[in-house]
Design goal:
The complex is a heterodimer of chains A (about 600) and B (about 600). By secondary structure, chain A is of the alpha/beta class. Chain A has 18 helices and 22 strands. Chain B starts with 5 loop residues before the first strand and ends with a strand. Classes of the chains: A alpha/beta (about 600), B alpha/beta (about 600). At the A-B interface, helix 2 of A face helix 17, helix 18 and helix 19 of B.
């Protein structure tokens, strides 16, 4: 590797050829500010449009200032990152951006968590000399995501996530000049686009332009309603990230504190989506074994590989982009929806409460879950199995708002019976986790033998597409894993082309899986946070006394008392679903 | 082939066609037929003569008679008088505005005297829709010479030696650009012709494509041979239908003659050209934005490097040159690099085509050697300022350029001098202004254009230009203070310093150059709330001078809002609260009784 030397702020640094000034400066602990640049390291997402122009630096011999994020270092380069020319230009550019931005910081959903706000503080902006017209756009309220483009600063990170990483292609730059903004084609609403609601645009938006639909007000009202039994379920990835909102290190597990907080908020029953994840494994694992058995018996009709179906962003994706392949994914509902269906039947009976008097709320690392609970097929007489879903961020806000000192809370346990779960369920929160959980159970059910080693390291990792094979006592099961819909698309294209050799494929829409979900505390471009959460998930799994879904006593009891057996008629009715061809939905006409 | 005694060249450029030169052509043809002169007189539609001020133009050769403002009905007289009786139609001859004398021969016209036509050599001479006429004018000779006698390296060296620099505005040495592209390996290289001419008032490229499309095709083949590209793309704005049509005809004809396609002239070299349409975004003239637009992406620039030569169209090595640059290429190979380099200044060789416009007598398209002074262009070729008014400024380089004053009149025009003077060559717009032009309003006009045409990708250009416009607007309304002037200057500097592409990096030039050269006008607007040129409506009043008013009622009758009162033969008065400052009263008054204060 060719090394070159350059001088930044009068200090010498040696870097590999091809390194940008931004990264070279970082080696000297010089943090050049930027609003658009984003690099998610191992996740292989780099966004450097060179658009915000906040990172400009002075390079000797160059006529104009250079964007540090996009300019490659040259041998002998002399760079100044805080000369008076740079400081003036940077502040002026920031003032310009602020001059076209609403001044409603005090009431903005992103307040305190906004990159633009942070930058204004850092630059010491005290007035905005360049006042004038502000660009305004029609706000867009979808079931999951709110677009308030008045707050868009055209960093276009969302575009990179939507187009390059997810290959969904909904968001792109439209209009020119001062009117330029990121929007779906023809500036339509998200609801009238092919948006999967994966929420990755929200996860990277530096301002309040993209936020999730807020359900906390509704929740507070329901909690205060004495006629309602309010049940909460919390997804596995929430416990690995919630602590960040309270200043704890990324990767801190806060399961017990979270349960205590939910109880203090006034929920009648604090349950765990992990319970439903174990149930998912029972259903999905049985379905996989069924398909495999038929395949091995020579049934040519059987659809393999089987694809997982727990991720609502992913479900939306194939309904829009691969509707002709919608018989390939498992018919198992997501854990969120399985939970809702069981809570409003099995558990409702247990507590002798009518469906209408029960509110099921989920806490999810996800914004697509908000959309998922509104799907018609998950309603009974108009009453949804899950009433609504709040994000990890919304929960954190609610805890703060309710005067709860989160970090001093005791560790408490989930309620029974729907709070009991295994290690297999916890790892649903990370890429590779669902399939590992499925393998743990499928292996034992198929072979009738006990696993000697529960951890399937070959299924873990952060690579976008991974493949592994598992030996089912002589039967080699080939497994594919993808996180990020762009990676999923590659695997689907292979299946379409008849090139796929997998028996089962796990897909999650978000980078790293649910740990990197669109509803999590913002990572602000730091991929290490996502990786720390992933580690925490595996730690939680290790600490669980039971680590295989089919050994969950509450699940066993549920089948005994209520469902019969996996894939039974009742299970089908409550725990399975069907998919739609959304390509047929004529988006231009509605 | 018939040997004609006389040729009547009818301008078929967009300007003249808009004044029915196509009907005139048909009439002339019909008249020649009817008089039985078809074997002696040939009527030809040509490209633009450049003298658009007085179109439609008909030039008769061999005697070089130059008829101006010809109407379709004049056809009969021209044929009857000139073709049959050998007498010029005097009333259609050009009259020199300085001495009021008729000039029969185009060679005697000040407009043409100092021009050297290289890029425009065939415009106004040949029928652009007939490849034979191009071939007769040494067409495709350079291509033949390069393909059969030169290696790509030799051909590139010839281009480097000629000193030709990109005519699209950047002024990058063409030969060096070709050399870089030739050295990058790629499966499929591309040659792209940038015909996305977007400066307001500029029509150099359009005229070349309309008047001499084959020259561009020929140059593209040569360029392809030099860099190892077999595909050529012409990116042209869809608003140029005539140019597109003539290009299509030219491409078909060249293919038919084996001058495009496989194994051109038995050289073993393949090259073909396709047309790509732009939707008319100014920023798509920037080469990376142009390439993205051709790829079907949003037309916005990306950071360089990588340069198109490294990763251009579809990620392949691509050389992008402007129409005018290409139009120079065949001549350089025909006449030699040495000949070309003998024209112009030390660092700017050859000629430059300018679209001369504004308050000038001879509006039109001109091609002048580099090094000519602004004075020569404006006062000799351009025939001086209209109506004998006083010269105030000349704007070069379009929205990217600046306004120069009389202190710059003797500056030799070339890339570096214009830049040093605070303007730029740009693609060749040249707008002349007189004392009735307000320089703040001029800067505002250009910013209005830039605000519309910014792609919106980078903050300083997207928001900064808007704020510049708003500040200028405030000044022209008399609402600005000194601090606004400081902000205007600082913001201009920052936009120039931080913008992503050439558009933003140059968009403040009209502001900075007018601030540098006409600060007194800015100060008059700010301090005294006065517009010295009487242009800015919020700062002027129309008033009637009592001593001069005879009460003729002309002003009152022509006032569109009826705000002028007064009886016949009585003094008239303007109700300022209703006046919309349209200026109709001033225009109609024959007694100099209306003034702007």
């Amino acid at each position: 590797m060719e090394m070159i030397k350059l001088n930044i702020d009068n200090r010498t640094v040696e870097v590999e050829k091809g390194t940008t000034i931004y990264h070279a400066a970082k080696k000297l602990d010089i943090g050049i500010p930027t609003l658009c640049y984003m690099n998610l390291g191992d996740l292989k997402i780099e966004h450097k449009p060179g658009g915000c122009r906040v990172c400009v630096v002075e390079v000797e011999g160059r006529r104009n200032l250079a964007p540090a994020c996009a300019t490659e270092c040259m041998d002998g380069m002399q760079v100044q990152t805080h000369s008076i020319r740079v400081l003036n230009a940077r502040k002026t550019v920031l003032e310009l951006i602020l001059s076209d931005h609403p001044f409603d910081c005090l009431i903005c959903a992103k307040s305190g968590n906004c990159d633009l706000q942070d930058m204004a503080i850092k630059m010491g902006v005290r007035s905005i000399p360049y006042q004038g017209e502000k660009s305004t756009y029609k706000p867009d309220f979808s079931p999951a995501i709110i677009r308030d483009m008045d707050k868009c600063i055209m960093c276009r990170r969302c575009e990179t996530m939507c187009n390059d990483f997810q290959t969904v292609g909904v968001l792109s730059g439209v209009n020119r000049g001062f009117e330029a903004v990121v929007a779906p084609a023809f500036e339509r609403d998200l609801d009238h686009s092919e948006c999967t609601y994966c929420g990755q645009c929200v996860a990277v938006c530096p301002t309040g332009a993209l936020t999730e639909v807020d359900h906390t007000t509704q929740l507070i009202r329901d909690l205060a309603d004495p006629t309602k039994k309010v049940v909460v379920q919390t997804a596995p990835a929430v416990r690995a990230a919630l602590g960040e909102a309270f200043g704890l290190e990324p990767g801190t597990l806060v399961t017990g504190k979270m349960v205590a907080a939910l109880r203090r908020l006034g929920f009648d029953y604090v349950f765990d989506t992990d319970f439903a994840a174990d149930l998912t494994i029972m259903e999905e694992g049985t379905e996989l074994l069924g398909r495999l058995t038929r395949f091995l018996e020579g049934d040519k009709e059987v659809k393999l590989p089987m694809l997982t179906s727990c991720c609502p962003g992913w479900v939306n994706f194939f309904e829009y982009h691969f509707p002709d392949m919608r018989d390939i994914p498992s018919t198992a509902r997501s854990p969120q929806q399985m939970f809702g269906a069981i809570a409003k039947t099995y558990f409702a009976e247990k507590i002798e409460t009518k469906r209408q008097d029960m509110i099921v709320v989920s806490v999810m690392p996800c914004v697509a879950k908000k959309y998922e609970c509104t799907r018609e097929e998950f309603k009974v007489d108009g009453n949804p199995d899950v009433d609504y879903s709040i994000s990890t961020r919304e929960l954190a806000m609610l805890i703060k708002r309710s005067n709860i000192d989160f970090n001093r809370l005791p560790e408490e346990e989930f309620d029974s019976p729907m709070g009991e779960s295994t290690g297999a369920a916890v790892i649903f929160g990370t890429t590779g986790g669902v399939i590992e959980a499925a393998v743990r159970s499928a292996y034992e059910i198929h072979t009738g033998k006990q696993l000697e080693k529960i951890d399937f390291e070959q299924l873990r990792g952060i690579e976008g597409i991974r493949s592994a094979s598992v030996d089912f006592d002589g039967l080699e099961i080939k497994i594919g894993i993808a996180h990020g819909l762009g990676h999923a698309r590659k695997l689907l294209d292979d299946i379409k082309a008849g090139k796929s050799e997998y028996h089962a494929i796990e897909i999650m829409a978000c980078p790293g899986g649910c740990v990197g979900g669109g509803g999590q505390p913002l990572h602000h471009g730091n991929p290490d946070i996502i990786k720390a959460r992933q580690k925490a998930i595996y730690r939680e799994d290790m600490n669980k006394p039971i680590r295989k879904s089919h050994e969950n006593p509450s699940i066993i009891k549920l089948y005994e008392e209520f469902l019969g057996e996996p894939m039974s008629e009742k299970a089908h009715q409550l725990l399975h679903t069907h998919y739609f061809d959304k390509k047929q939905k004529d988006v231009l006409l509605d | 082939m018939a040997k004609f005694k006389m040729h009547m060249l009818v301008c078929g450029g967009t300007g003249c066609r808009a004044s029915a030169s196509d009907v005139l052509y048909e009439n002339l043809k019909k008249e020649v037929q009817e008089q039985g002169l078809q074997d002696d007189v040939q009527v030809v539609t040509t490209g633009c003569f450049g003298f658009c001020e007085k179109g439609p133009i008909v030039k008769v050769i061999p005697d070089n008679t130059f008829y101006v403002s010809v109407e379709p009905k004049d056809a009969q007289e021209i044929v009857a008088e000139h073709a049959i009786k050998g007498r010029r139609v005097e009333r259609l001859l050009y009259v020199d505005p300085t001495n009021k004398k008729q000039i029969p021969d185009s060679k005697g016209m000040g407009f043409y005297k100092k021009q050297i036509r290289i890029a425009l050599r065939n415009c106004g001479l040949i029928d652009p829709e007939n490849i034979d006429e191009y071939l007769a004018a040494d067409g495709y000779e350079a291509m033949g010479k390069v393909l059969s006698e030169m290696t790509p390296e030799e051909a590139i060296q010839e281009m480097i030696d000629s000193g030709l620099r990109g005519r699209g505005g950047g002024g990058f040495p063409t030969g060096i650009k070709w050399q870089i592209a030739s050295k990058v390996a790629g499966e499929q290289k591309y040659v792209v012709c940038n015909a996305d001419e977007g400066d307001p008032g500029a029509f150099m490229d359009r005229s070349i494509l309309e008047g001499d499309p084959h020259t561009v095709l020929e140059a593209m083949v040569i360029n392809g041979y030099c860099i190892g590209a077999t595909k050529g793309l012409i990116y042209i704005r869809a608003e140029y239908p005539l140019a597109i049509n003539r290009l299509k005809i030219a491409i078909d004809q060249a293919r038919e003659y084996g001058l495009l396609g496989t194994d051109i002239l038995g050289s073993g070299f393949d090259f073909d050209v396709e047309i790509r349409y732009g939707a008319g975004a100014f920023v798509c003239g920037e080469e990376t934005a142009l390439i993205h637009s051709m790829e079907g992406e949003r037309g916005e620039p990306t950071f360089k490097p990588p340069f198109p030569a490294q990763s251009g169209y579809k990620g392949m090595p691509t050389n992008v040159n402007n129409v005018e640059t290409f139009a120079n290429v065949p001549v350089i190979y025909n006449k030699g690099a040495k000949w070309f380099a003998s024209i112009g200044t030390e660092k700017s060789k050859g000629t430059k085509v300018f679209a001369l416009a504004g308050k000038i007598n001879n509006v039109g398209l001109i091609e002048v050697p580099m090094g000519i002074t602004l004075r020569e262009v404006i006062f000799e070729i351009g025939g001086g300022i209209k109506d004998g008014r006083k010269f105030k400024a000349v704007q070069t380089g379009g929205p990217s350029g600046g306004c120069l004053t009389d202190k710059h009149l003797d500056t030799p025009i070339d890339f570096d001098n214009l830049l040093a003077a605070g303007s730029m060559m740009g693609s060749g717009g040249m707008i002349v202004m007189d004392e009735d032009d307000c320089m703040v309003a001029v800067a505002k006009f250009y910013l209005d254009f830039t605000v519309e045409e910014s792609c919106g990708k980078c903050s300083p250009c997207r928001i900064g230009n808007k704020r510049l416009y708003e500040l200028l607007d405030k000044i022209t309304k008399g609402q600005a203070d000194k601090e606004d002037l400081d902000n205007l200057r600082n913001l201009s500097g920052v936009i120039r310093d931080t913008s992503l592409c050439g558009l933003g990096q140059t968009s403040p030039n009209p502001v900075l150059s007018t601030m540098d050269n006409f600060m007194e006008e800015y100060l008059a607007h700010v301090d005294d709330h006065r517009c010295l040129a009487g242009v800015c409506k919020d700062l002027i009043r129309y008033e009637i001078i009592p001593e001069n008013c005879v009460g003729c009622t002309a002003c009152a009758r022509n006032c569109p809002v009826n705000c002028i009162a007064g009886e016949r033969k009585q003094l008239h008065t303007i109700d300022q609260s209703l006046c919309i400052k349209c200026g109709a009263c001033l225009e109609k008054c024959k007694f100099n009784a209306v003034e702007i204060v």
